[in-house]
């Protein structure tokens, strides 16, 4: 089961960073490369524990839908969402926030299981894990830019 970890230092207060991560419209802006948009569940505003959102995006040239549920939230330190329906067999994505000097460290932890057993494991090794890592890093960089512009 691949596990992706990525830390980003953001020169912005922890509450700004946390709220940007749970803002549905900001999620859309930070994933524009995949044309991601909310099409079900909560489609605007700030997510809270128990909320679900269905995202539609284009990955590998294919339009896909994925529904995630916020299963844990400790404002402004932690948000965890899990896939409840979608292309993966499962995934858990945790965003943790730590105050650091004048800014915040955002820690992304993304753990997933691909479908299709052995074939899924081969796909992970060939390209999916690198693709997902790039997706997580790109989104973190976009969040960093937005948070630092606001602050």
TrEMBL record:
Under the heading SUPFAM superfamilies, the entry gives: Bet v1-like
Query: Per its UniProt record, what Pfam families does this chain match?
Result: Polyketide_cyc
Q: Which domain of life is it from?
A: Bacteria
Q: Where is the Coenzyme Q-binding protein COQ10 START domain?
A: 10-118
Do you know which InterPro entries this protein is assigned to?
A: COQ10_START (IPR005031), START-like_dom_sf (IPR023393)
- This protein is called SRPBCC family protein
Q: Which organism is it from?
A: Paenibacillus zeirhizosphaerae
Lineage, opening ranks: Bacteria, Bacillati, Bacillota, Bacilli, Bacillales
């Amino acid at each position: 089961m691949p596990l992706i970890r990525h830390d980003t230092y953001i020169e912005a207060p922890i509450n700004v960073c946390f709220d940007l991560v749970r803002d549905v419209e900001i999620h859309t802006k930070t994933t524009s490369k995949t044309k991601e948009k909310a099409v079900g569940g909560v489609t605007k505003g700030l997510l809270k524990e128990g909320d679900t959102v269905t995202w539609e995006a284009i990955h590998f040239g294919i339009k896909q839908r994925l529904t995630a549920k916020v299963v844990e939230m400790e404002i402004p330190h932690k948000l965890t969402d899990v896939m409840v329906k979608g292309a993966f067999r499962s995934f858990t994505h945790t965003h943790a926030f730590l105050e650091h000097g004048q800014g915040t460290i955002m820690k992304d932890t993304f753990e997933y299981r691909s479908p299709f057993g052995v074939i899924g494991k081969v796909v992970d090794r060939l390209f999916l894990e690198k693709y997902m890592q790039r997706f997580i890093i790109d989104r973190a960089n976009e969040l960093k830019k937005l948070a630092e512009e606001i602050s």
